[in-house]
Amino acid sequence: MGKNTASANSKREQAQAMVANQQKKAKRTRLITIGVAAAAALAIAVPTAVVLSGEAKQRAELEAAASQPIEGVQVYTDLASNHVQTDVDYPQRPGVGGDHYPVWANCGIYNREIDETHAVHSLEHGAVWITYRSDISAEEKAALEELVGERTYLLLSPFNDQEEPIKLSAWGVQLAVDTASDPRIPTFIAKYRQGEQTPEPGAACTGGLDG
């Protein structure tokens, strides 16, 4: 009887020890899993935070630059804004404002010249029109296309009746640059796309004509 009781107690103690050991292993596994997950989350979060911080800094720098006068920008005032049915001979190349067709040019990227009188109407709605001579390099053109992408209120097209390689035009303002890498380009866009000079901010830049 005594031997049987001792044997039963021994088996029970062994079983309890086995359960306790398994629980310890399970706890260690959970801690390791949590640690690995936390490390992975940290590895993702840190570079993401750095990227977001860098983007915020770039935006702040761009906004600060756009709040100041931009070197080289030509300003034109007292521009007419009547709707007409005939082409307009603008004094600037390309035009930055004045009478224009009743229908605007749709914003976007064009690989051909577009009608200037439609494009000027787009400027009235707050668009920035980037024009370039067809003899710029393929790399320069690609850089301009990447800059515009699918962003709204931007037009990009060749315009061979201009002296400078690249021009940026918004209603009443214009900037000529030599290269697509000129740092004034993004500043001009930030300042004048839907800028304070826009006669009809928020008016459509789609639903018109494709150039």
Structural description of this entry:
This protein is of the alpha/beta class and about 210 residues long. The chain has helices at about 1-65, 115-125, 140-150, 185-190, and strands at about 75, 110, 130, 155-160, 165-170, 175. The chain has a 6-stranded mixed beta sheet. Helix 1 (about 1-65) packs across helix 4 (about 185-190). The chain starts with a helix and ends in a 19-residue tail after the last helix. The model has no long low-confidence stretch (mean pLDDT about 85). This is Membrane protein. Keywords: Membrane, Transmembrane, Transmembrane helix. Pfam families: DUF3105.
Gist?
This protein has 211 residues and is an alpha/beta fold. The chain has 4 helices and 6 strands; from the N terminus they run αββαβαβββα. Helix content is 45%, strand content 11%.
Give the biggest sheet.
Answer: 6 strands, mixed
Cα-atom Rg, whole angstroms?
A: 33 Å
Q: Give the total of beta strands.
A: 6
Describe the global form.
elongated
SSE sequence, one letter per element: HEEHEHEEEH
Strand share of the residues? 5-15%
As for the number of domains, it is: 2
Instruction: Give the strand line-up of the largest sheet.
Output: 1-6-5-3-4-2
The CATH topology label of the largest domain is: Glutaredoxin
Secondary structure layout plus pairing:
Elements: H1 2-66, E1 74-75, E2 108-109, H2 116-124, E3 128-132, H3 138-148, E4 154-158, E5 166-170, E6 173-177, H4 184-192
Parallel strand pairs: 2-4, 3-4
Antiparallel strand pairs: 1-6, 3-5, 5-6
Helix pairs in contact: 1-4
InterPro entries: DUF3105 (IPR021454)
Keywords: Membrane, Transmembrane, Transmembrane helix
Organism: Zafaria cholistanensis
